[in-house]
User: What shape does this take?
Amino acid sequence: MANDNQRVRLDLALKAMADTSIENSEEVIIKIITSLEAELGDNQKTIAEELQKIARQIEHTGMVDVAMDFKQRTTSAMMRLSMERRRGLRPPAIVPGAGAPSVANSATGTNTDSSLTVGASSRVASSAAPGSSVSARSSGVSAMPSVQAIGNTSASFAQNVRIEGTQVEYLVHPSRDVKADSRAFCDVLKGQRIWESAGGNICAIKFSTGPHVIIVEEVAFTCSVVLSVSNFEKTADDLESQGYQIVGSVPTPVGSASVFASDCGSKFALIARK
Assistant: This one.
């Protein structure tokens, strides 16, 4: 069964890295992590070692860039999962031996493991219309404040947020043709392409001064700026206590940045400063 699970996780990893939808691919990565927790326990070091093994398996197939991208995204996903659990946005890790089915069974259609369906239940809770009978609690996640409730105090939220030492790391440029825009930024504007995602639909351009530019397909466009902070978890706590919510992510050369949004639609991405 262990070998079956390993094969399924490798297949899921390749599926995630090939998916052009950032949201979908990150939920698949979360499923891989939670299935490892159900099998091995909530030991971050052990989980990280298993994810490294998957990355090496990908690398052995000749996809070195995909393996590197997988390492970066799983590191960010583990941080995101831990943070969301502390805030009650996801259920705690399943204890090994608690009767949860294997990831192999989930892949064949059983899919009764709550750790593997958490992404779906989160989406159900967040997409339920006002007045719907579907509640956050019945979906297995903690209740989120309503948009209306947040909106009533959005002005005071903005005034109360005080984050020190923030730096602009990347500007995000939406594109209908990433390769064409990349050539223009490099050949005409004399930038240097320093990074490209495994699928080639996202790349980063460096200039002599100023922040790097990340070119993304319009379908993956989520926000226009990526900021870095020295203490990501504290900053995330401060923002969420003031009504901001994590609504997505932006891939960067150093890992995924979390996109925060207010009820009025203001969005920006944050990443831990290296």
